[in-house]
Amino acid sequence: MYQTIDFLKQAYTSLKSSIKWQTQLDEFDIIFLGVLITLILHFILNRIRIPRRDYNQSYWTFIKSQVFLGLINYCPGVSSFLEKKKEEALKSFSHSLDKYTTNKTFKIPENGMGYDKINERLKSWIDRDSKNYYSGKVSGSLYVHNDQQFIEDCQEFTKNFLYSNPMHADLWPASRQLEAEVIKMTGELFGQDKEAIGMLTTGGTESILLAILAYRNWAETEKGITQPNIVIPETAHAAFYKAGEYFKIQVRTAKVNQKTFTVDLKDLKSHINSNTICIVGSLPNFPYGTQDPIEELAAIAKKKKIGFHVDACLGGFIVAFAKEKGMNYGNYDFTLDGVTSISCDQHKHGLAPKGVSTILFKTRQLRQYAFFSTATWSGGAYAVPTTQGSKTGVGAAGAWFTMLAIGRKRYIELSKSIINATIQLAKQINEIPELEVCGEPKINCVCFKSKGNINVYSIHQILTSKGWNLNTTQNPNGIHISVTQQNIQNLKVFVQDIKEAIKEIKTNPSKYKSGGDMGALYGTTQKIPDSKFAGNALKLYLDSVLKL
Ligand SMILES: Cc1ncc(COP(=O)(O)O)c(C=O)c1O
């Protein structure tokens, strides 16, 4: 020990004398210069943006994307060319949306408009739009069963809550009660018999954001994690990436088995480290409608002492009722050790009007990590459970009315019909020699890909011309349909239309080689070496959606 101190002393003295000898500076000058150089370096380094490789990016993709961005930013003429292209794209997006924009209003009218005129506009919009959303040829989007009287009764009930604001629980106690009852009824579906611990949100995305926020705050407070990451199957919903972006959490994606289209557990485990705050499983996932191995994921989370979110936004209301009919989806709720949060959407297969979902937590402590409160704000003590401040009571009212009016028995029947139709549809598509269903969907969505040369996006192109409104997937390229009470009657027509589309493509292969608009879109985005650049280009579409 003494020897070490002695050595350090000697080293310091010789360093001091050598610097003095070299520069003739005194000790104060040396300290001053040292601090100055440190500050200058700090200033420079803070201004240089050193590109960082994304966790999910390979070194090769990273290099390609940097070269690509370098070309865009520094090659003369390239950025102005891109600006021009962006303007053109914006115009073209706006033009395609403008086709459906009638009676534009740019300013508040000087004198209020008569109700007759307002209703005239409303009628023309509803007459036109309802032909699309009630066409019975739409994937997902509108889930309510086709009972016009039920829809009208629900509208009649919910309109009473249009001006309510459940943030003021004292002024609108009925709104507060409806919200708490919806949470309670939903919690009960997922094994929270005694106390439901949840929040009512505006949709699946907000439920997921709040779950991830809770895990981040929990991990920071209780485990000291300041550089958090989440590990999700690559099929998990885009809302998890949104949470990563909003809350600055690294998102690590785990591969999906290309036969079962469910998460590869070995790969998932390999991404977990000491900064992992939670893992995710979907019931089912949106792209393929397949269900991740929830029980195994729960066991991993429990062993690693991290959170496990079950995303049942899409399938929760189907699976929970199917269980009562004896169908076995394994265990997935709070009775399974390891499950710490569940999201479930009333506004999907809960059949409620839009704008309502539930996020449930295993414990009150975990839920508190998603709440916001401040006792020191000059506006007074303030506490809200979700991302909203003032909010409408319509969401809770719509969900409450729907859950009570439909009742358990009808939910069970409706869920069973969706499951049967999904299994049947997957079987029929698998019988088409040119196609193959991705995995084994058993809940409410089916996705299929091409087995041979046929461009699946060309099938999409033809189906669109036949009035279908479907989703396309990538990696692999496919067509996804979410089975709903609206399109369930038309699934036979759907299969027939697919067969006809294949026939048409085969008789005119050169015309259908490229896959139409979708083929062009994915063809381009998949070729762009920087995925963020491609993603940002899509924001142009949002500019045009919000523009008149
Ligand atoms: C599995 C899954 N999770 C989350 C969401 C997000 O729900 P929302 O669109 O209500 O925000 C969806 C939407 O389709 C979904 O399918």
UniProtKB/TrEMBL annotation:
Domain of life: Eukaryota
InterPro entries, alphabetized: GrpII_AminoAcid_Decarb (IPR050477), PyrdxlP-dep_de-COase (IPR002129)
Entry keyword Lipid metabolism: yes
Biological process per Gene Ontology, one example term: sphingolipid catabolic process
Pfam families: Pyridoxal_deC
Bilayer topology: Single-pass membrane protein
Leading EC class: lyase
PTM-bearing positions, type N6-(pyridoxal phosphate)lysine: 348
Entry EC no(s): 4.1.2.27
Transmembrane segments: 30-48
Annotated protein name in UniProt: sphinganine-1-phosphate aldolase
Organism of this sequence: Paramecium primaurelia
